[in-house]
Design brief:
Ribonuclease P protein component 3; hydrolase; alpha/beta; 48% helix; EC 3.1.26.5; Pol/histidinol_Pase-like
Amino acid sequence: MDVRSEEAYELAKEWFDEVVFTKKLVLESSPNWGELKEELRLLRERYGRVALLIVTKKPSLIREVKNRNLKALIYVQGGDMRVNRFALESGVDALISPWLGRKDPGFDHVLARIAAKRGVAVGFSLAPLLRANPYERVQLLRFMAKTWELVRKYRVPRFLTSSAESKWEVRSPRDLMSLGINIGMELPEARASLHFYPIAMLEGFTVPTATSRT
């Protein structure tokens, strides 16, 4: 669902029917919009499905990107609590790893309600686990499990992803489903997080949320 290099994309295509090539965009100020649009156009020609991962500590830059017609899925890298909340409120396509670099999950009941209302998916990313030491890995899994409890409770859209930046970080569907099970998902929930919810995002389906249930 989210790979960030050509070699990772080519390997992921062997395992997955739908793979999104993600351009990582680190922002401290407004980018050159003309250059960015042209780069995304070339990426769409090459890969088809394209996402833009915004990495920033300035929430206002998320709004700028969101308001541009970039013809790409808009992901936000989580971590900063202001960024986490603003990303959800602005209705981006996904908030990935809201716990990254934190000493807590970075996701609470308030944010879960916002995510459900706005239809913003939470991405559970494997890559940070691969780069972490044993202590950090335990902490990350604990934060992911706590976030999953809220995602399940409020029926927030979600997906499991490798977020691979090299071919060495690409993992098979079975490995990603194992991640889901390790953080508390039942097998059908892990399967839906790998297939149904990502496809719903790609095809623009309206995924049921807590606010739309009767």
